[in-house]
Amino acid sequence: MYEGEGEATAGCRVFDLELAAYLEGEERPELVAHVRECSFCYSMLADLEGIRSAGSDLALEEPPARVWTNIRASLIAEKIIRQREVFWQRWLQSWPVWAGLHNPVAVAALGCLMVLGIGLLRFPSAHKSPPDTARTVDLSDVASAAAAVGPMETSYHAQAASFEPSVKETYQKSLDSLDGEIRECLDSVRQEPDNSLAHEYLLAAYQQKAYVLQSALDAEGR
Amino acid sequence: LSLEHNLAPKATSEPQLIARAQRGDEGAFAALFEMHKRRVYSLCLRMTGDVAEAEDLAQEAFLQLFRKIATFRGESAFSTWLHRLVVNVVLMHLRKKGLQQVPLEETDNAQEDVVKREYGDDDRRLLGSIDRLTLARAIERLPPGYRAVFVLHDVEGYEHNEIAQIMNCSVGNSKSQLHKARLKLREALRQERFAAEAHTATDKGR
């Protein structure tokens, strides 16, 4: 029991005065002596020491997921996070200078888009009039494009053996698709020599093949 | 994509993550957030006592950190830098809110720092170990000034001279606030305990 059986003693008053300092680590012999005799002050000291100890041991709380979501959105908006460009963004950026393309993925994609475009549009039959906007393609343009592609293709095949397998595969898929479209265009031109759209698509396919080959040769030549 | 998906490999050290974040690498930002989010959020929560405010402040603190990360040169520990920043964000918020941050001088001689003696209680002492959840709730109910000093000192481990600097007060005031905060917490925990015991007794009497 505490001293005085119900009333604070002189020792308790010393305890009150010195408690804060003692909890801060200061030496207070009178206080230590007092708590050995006073159960009230002993309990008080034990409780406060327990609270101090428990404070440093509180469980950490998990923030809701939206905290990161909001932070991320702000970082992106402020351009602090530099997001990797997705393929189509790269492709669009390269469009104005596509003759200088060096990225096999972008080249392959261009080829695929070309093939897809040709496949979707198909050639109007010879019985239909070509659209007014269609530019008339001279056969000599087609012949020039085909002639330009020949030597490039020879160089490409000469160098392709030294390409990285994955790079080579990418280029080859693109070239194979374009060759397929060129064959289809040539068939259409043979069947319908007056179909100007078929001429136009044929020229575009040769030009596209030239770009792909030039890209491959430039990239591997560096 | 889950956050974990964006995380850097576990082997990546904090300095490496900081260097990557300085280059704008999203994965590094995410990893740094993961490493520190619980401590930052808990600090905000304990100092404000309010979940919504804690979310906003944790968000603001991390944003400030990431905006400034390019200037971090490693002179001090990253976590020290971060936690000082969090404390500043929270205190700034409390000041803006105009909360009655307990004027330290006014309470120095108040009755609150005197041990409350209620003689006659058969069992005056709190039951041995202190329930962490109950303590966390009691901390939330402390007046802001007491709460801030208690959280900074007893929870976060700041020294009184650091708290004095952060809170723009004297070391003596910081010590005084802390002592009063502990006394208030003890009283709150005792009240909780008595209420729980009374509730149990009522249930048994039915």
According to DSSP, the number of beta strands of chain B is 0
What gyration radius of chain A follows from the Cα positions, in whole Å? Answer: 41 Å
Separation, N- and C-terminal Cα atoms of chain A? 92 Å
- Beta strand count of chain A: 0
What would you call the shape of chain A?
rod-shaped
Structural class of chain A: mainly alpha
Main sheet: strands, sense, barrel of chain B:
none
Oligomer: heterodimer
Count of DSSP-assigned helices of chain A = 9
Characterise this structure.
The complex is a heterodimer of chains A (222) and B (206). Chain A has helices at 10-23, 29-37, 39-55, 65-77, 87-94, 104-121, 139-160, 165-191, 196-221. Chain A contains nine helices and no strands. Chain A is an all-alpha fold and 222 residues long. Chain B is mainly α and 206 residues long. Chains A and B meet through α1, α3 and α4 of A and α3, α4, α7, α8 and α10 of B.
Keywords:
heterodimer; A: 222 residues; mainly alpha; rod-shaped; B: 206 residues; 69% helix; 0% strand
Short description:
With 222 residues, chain A is mainly α. Chain A contains nine helices and no strands.
List the helices and strands and how they pair.
The complex is a heterodimer of chains A (222) and B (206).
Chain A: H1 10-23, H2 29-37, H3 39-55, H4 65-77, H5 87-94, H6 104-121, H7 139-160, H8 165-191, H9 196-221
Helix pairs in contact in A: 1-2, 1-3, 2-3, 5-6, 6-8, 6-9, 7-9, 8-9
Chain B: H1 3-6, H2 14-22, H3 26-48, H4 51-68, H5 78-97, H6 104-107, H7 132-140, H8 144-155, H9 160-167, H10 171-205
